[in-house]
Amino acid sequence: MVNVGVRLPARGLISAKGKKTIALTAMVLPGAVWLLLFRYAPMFGVIIGFKDFRLPNPRLGILQDIFSRDWVGFSNFKLLFGNPMTSNVIRNTLLYNITFIVLGTLIAVAFAIMLNEISHMFLSKVYQTAMFFPFFLSWVVVSYFLFAFISTKNGVVSPAAFGLVDFYLQPEPWPFILIVSYIWKMTGYSSLIYLAVITGIDSAQYEAASIDGASKWQQAIHITLPNLRPIIIILFIMNVGRIFNADFGQFWALPIDGGSAAATNATGVVDTYIYRLLRTSVNIGQSTAVGLFQNAIGFVCIMIANTVVRKVDRDSAMF
Amino acid sequence: MDITQKTKITDGGRLGRASLFSRSVINLITGGFALACLIPFVFTVIISFSAEESIRRNGYSFFPSEWSVAAYKSAFEIGDQLWRSLYNSVLVTIAGTVLAVLICILYSYALFRRDYKFRGFFAFFCFFTMLFGGGLAPTVIITQTLLGQDNYAVLIIPMLVNVFNFIIMRSFFQASVPFELIEAAHIDGSGEWRTLFKIVLPISTPGIATVSLLFMLAYWNEWFIPQLYINNNNYVPLQYLLVQMQRDAQYMALNAGKAGSGIMASIPTESLRMALCVMIVVPISFAYPFFQRYIVKGLTVGSLKG
User: Exposed/middle/buried for B140, CB within 10 Å: 0-12, 13-18, 19+?
Assistant: First the structure.
């Protein structure tokens, strides 16, 4: 039992308990080192947001390069907020996310309830399988699907029918396209999560209700929805905490490289903005500043959302 | 009196059904949406089998005037870049998934062990990264400093850890491994590593399958990481090849007459592009039954108990 390694001065110096701690810490280590390098180290990198840092200097090591730059205080932030582009992407991100949260939840819950009412097991399985399919595709693949429908040269949907010249060169169609594509891709996944909860509801509740003469509709309102409440709340907090984050893949791939100059008015979101500042206009300091702003707001949002939920329903809070 | 009571229960009860009308409406809506989820893919398959001439004349169509397998033929004939990218995608997906699952199992097993001294610390250490991060630019700088660019490491390592998968794996351990089992193993003199690999893992296969599939899907579908770190065509995976083709086609459409630049200039046909898209989706379709079986379970476990 107390079989210790040769390098230790005396037998039994490390107890069984200590050995257990060492072994489990060794297990945590690979993941912990990764988190330290790729998640925590970048957190210290946010100082770049307070420096005058456009292009990296290839002759200096990156750390030396960062430290040698001048501090500029909040001037990166000031420049950004003087730019109408910034307020536009923030507005877009918020509006898209609010629409996604509200419509996405309503539609997914509705489909979950409907799927549960389909008594034909095989049909129900077929529907679920088909609805879940888009979840597994990358946004790039979806962008090809979209292209097949709306490409000006070959697409089946003619832009002229909507009074447009080219879907990809105008902002007007994009709010609709992005919202529909989001619903199309995510509904199957979310409604399956809600459905899993619904199937777990004790059927005695429904039997009792129907003996009392409750209609299907009343049962959905008074039994199904209250049972779904915790999961809806949890997913809601997660989404509200990410209200400043857009899915880069969707907003970059669907309009093709983030959208043409004209279309960005409607397709530009914080995440694609950060990417463009980093790669197209190459201003690393400003890109970092927007990223920091996004993360700070996100952190505050998730804390507020969690506190609110804890007040309303303690058990549903995340922490 | 008795009879009316009975019919009431069988008609309106949960075991009974909604009215014929509402049942038809429900079937119509869900069936219609289910169909809409598949149609774009079917359309893409049809385009990939359309003759180039037919596309030139009528545009993309559900009913092309002429069918052809030319796109697939040319993909196999001139697809040097295609084979290279397919190889890259398969390599990165397999190597990445194996490593990522291993790291995930080890970390979440320690989090699952409630008798582990530093459990609280390491739980916070990973969960905090879900709440706050450094953002894109600092992450890119650090990744490039540590891993450089245009190599396989930079395609694999930045995606090795996913805290959400840690939560899922830990929930599976909590659901399927009784704590007494671990205590019993220790009393029998089994070391920690032996306990994990010989006793815990064999009874945790559904959890392992779930996180493996999630990682596999993430690696197979990834194109943002290559967009950030890959400039050399030798390391371009399939998804990013698709991105570049889309960009190229758009470039050609906007600059009519000029030849496309870059990677796909040599194979610009319309149907071929859609054929490649189909070839990316087909492997996912094969794995789909497993995905559906495990991922629904995994995601519900993860999101309910997270």
Answer: buried
Regarding whether B235 and B89 lie in a shared domain, the answer is: yes
What CATH number was assigned to the domain covering residues A75-316? 1.10.3720.10
pLDDT (tens digit, 9 = 90+) per residue, B26-74? Answer: 999 999 999 999 999 999 999 988 888 888 888 888 888 888 888 888 7
For position B179, which CATH number holds?
Answer: 1.10.3720.10
Q: From the candidates B14, B117, B230, B247, which should be mutated to test the interface with A, based on the most A CB atoms within 10 A?
A: B14
In our burial notation (b when 16+ CB lie closer than 10 A, e otherwise), range B165-200 reads bbbbbbbbbbeebeeeebeebeeeeeebeebbeebb
Tell me the CA distances in angstroms from B91 to A247, B153, B211, one per residue in order.
26, 11, 18
**A287–B contact, CB cutoff 8 A:** yes
Check A149 against B106: CB less than 8 A apart.
Answer: no
pLDDT of residue A13: 66
Q: Tens digit of pLDDT for each residue in A260-276?
A: 888 999 999 999 999 99
**Helix or strand (DSSP H, E) at A138:** none
**ipTM score for this prediction:** 0.87
| Entry pTM | 0.88
- Which residue range(s) make up the domain with B184? 79-268
Tokens 């090795």 label which residue? B160
Alpha helices in A151-258 (DSSP H): 174-199, 203-211, 216-219, 225-241, 248-253
Do A187 and A133 meet the contact criterion of CB atoms below 8 Å apart? Answer: no
User: Mutate which of B33, B168, B170 to disrupt the A interface (most A C-beta within 10 Å)?
Assistant: B33
Distance from CA of B128 to the nearest CA of A (A): 10
Contacts of A273 in chain B (CB under 8 A): none
3-state secondary structure of B246: helix
A235/B284 CB distance under 8 A: no
Q: Is A39 on the interface with B (CB under 8 A)?
A: yes
Cβ count near B158 (within 10 Å): 22
pLDDT given for residue A186 in this prediction: 94
Of B14, B34, B189, the CB nearest to A207: B14
- If one counts the domains in chain B, the total is 2
> Cβ of A32 under 8 Å from any chain B Cβ?
yes
